[in-house]
Amino acid sequence: MIQLYHVSKEYGRFRHALTEVTCKIERGEFVFLTGPSGAGKTTFLKLLFREEAPTTGQIVVNGRNIWVLPSARVPFFRRTIGVVFQDFRLIARKTVFENIAFVQNVLGLPRAEQRRRAYQVLKRVGLHHQMNAYPHDLSGGEQQRVAIARAIVNEPALLLADEPTGNLDPVLSEEIMRLFADINIRGTTVIVATHDLDLIRRMGKRVLTLERGRLREGAPPAPLIREAPFLPRG
Amino acid sequence: MVNVRYVFGEAWSIARSGARQTAMAVALVALGLYVPGLLVLLSRNLGRLASAGGEPPAAVVTLESSADSKEAGERIARDSRVARVRIISGAEALERFRRAYPDLGAVLADLKEAPFPPTLEIFIKPGVPPAAAAEIAEAVRKQPGVETAESEEGFDKRFREAIRLLRGAGLFLGALLTLAAMLSVASAIRLALDLHRDEIEIMRLMGATEGAVRAPFLLYGAFEGFSGGAIALGLLAATYAVATRLLVRHPHPVLSIFWTSFLDWPSAAALPLMGTAAGFIGSVLSLGRKART
Lengths: 234, 293
Hints:
The complex is a heterodimer.
Chain A: E1 2-11, E2 15-25, E3 30-34, H1 41-48, E4 56-61, E5 64-65, H2 74-78, E6 81-84, H3 96-100, H4 102-107, H5 111-124, H6 140-152, E7 158-162, H7 170-185, E8 189-193, H8 197-203, E9 206-211, E10 214-217, H9 222-226
Parallel strand pairs in A: 3-8, 3-9, 6-7, 7-8
Antiparallel strand pairs in A: 1-2, 1-4, 4-5, 9-10
Chain B: H1 4-17, H2 19-51, E1 59-63, H3 69-77, E2 82-88, H4 90-100, H5 102-108, E3 119-124, H6 131-141, E4 146-151, H7 153-195, H8 197-205, H9 210-249, H10 255-258, H11 265-290
Antiparallel strand pairs in B: 1-3, 1-4, 2-3
Helix pairs in contact in B: 1-9, 2-7, 2-9, 2-11, 4-5, 7-9, 7-11, 9-11
């Protein structure tokens, strides 16, 4: 499903976000990506989504080297991936329904079908009663759930989530993780970047740890996460 | 392929989110097209006067109402330089006026007798120098029954030059103001792009193609241009209606010439079409530079 070969990403000459990252994630896997702030988790996800370009190395998603993908094909590639951004990235002037149905609307799916799908995913995240609300009418946790609903509405082959429980209480975090697990059971590959080691332990899934841009298999020792809050965000 | 309903919905949403900029751009387009439209309208009406009689006469003789126009015509035709003389009776002149200016013909309908005196139009033979027209007019002026005799060569030339000048000014101003309209739409689009920059980024991340991102802005620009053109046409029609109403109440021999009829429909339709084209080009210019940033 996903293969990274010696991928490095540098911002300028002195900031190395990722260094020589090589890994393989199989189709249908559920993987946690963890590490302290600034370790390169967000950069890792952005590379998979082709939001950023690697400085060196190759990235293969679904058997295709995504960095040789023509620009015109990128939107179609992105439609196969669901992304939950750390800062939600909801469109403020659109309702919850319009945010969720955006791609379907562009594609010209009948309005009734758009509403049906949006209702189904909103029901899964417990927000079906907020279809016509605007993002600014919702709490941070609710906006996060709308972002999750938007990411899964097209039943993507790959779901990337960047700190999806960062704004949620433990009960809701647990629910969201159950939702991701449910999506994963249906065949979607899920990669979740998170600081929450307790959550990672409870889920018992594969863990990749990023530390100063270098990737290693397995969970980090607990102090690594706790000692890191003063590092810049990555 | 981008869904048409989505494009219209987004374009409308963009227009609403920057209502003030939209109104300003539409007003500038309207002004930009109204001024050249007005010049075209005036020059068209003036042009009708020039082309109403077909080949222009070299000299025009106005006879006294008691004079025998046939005899006077035969007398003038004896000059070897004259090709032919056309007799225009008062009734014929009135009919010609009504044909050229149908909207003003009604003003003369109530008159009991023809307001135009009988005239003779003198056409000179090919190869005869244009200066001969003035000599012929000079000679005819001395004949009995002749009130006035004027050479038309100089006037006709000056008249046609005036129309050409008016049309040229219309075209120049039209080009200049259409460019200004284009730039005002481009600037409105730039503002809209700045306003929606975050959204555009999100749309791209969600899998929107460049077409889906750009199409609503292109439509928005074209809509601004079309609205501006339609308003310019409306303003022009209103100006024409007011002018003709005023001229019916207070007839003026010179001003009436400029307000005889409105633009024919292809010319009228050209205003909104030009506005649409200007808006579209303006948004293309803007999107070319800004959409990727």
